[in-house]
Amino acid sequence: MPGTDDTDRMKQLAITLVDAYVRKDRDLLDQTVAEVGDDTEGAVSELKVFGSFLSRRVQETGVVWKPADSREAVASAVADMLPPEVEFAVITVWEAYSLGEEEAAERFTNGDPTVYLHMLAAFSAAIGQAVYKPAELISTLRIASGGSE
């Protein structure tokens, strides 16, 4: 099936981005963003799937997770991981995005698709850790994406 290798690669890169935020590993984050390269759309798509999956897991487990929790968690996840201007953009975009103000969120990205990449990876890392231990989270994402542990 054409494109399967690219899809699998994007899934693995998306998981690695989440892992970098979980571990607070800037080098791994920078390396993985470089590997994503121009295909941020593919990675963002995978991260949206992971974010939705983890949001459902939080709801199913009954963990209380309010919009304010996600804003604080994303801000905490990106703290000291990104250059200050990118960190600010990610937090600002997440604030608008989490309130359903997608047009405003798009404006705040200033056309930089990596802002969404960081935002969704940080969100997945944060919300995932509300229900999973770090290693369990990454293992669960690998299994959920059809990969191996």
Automatic annotation (TrEMBL):
Domain of life per record: Bacteria
Name of protein: Uncharacterized protein
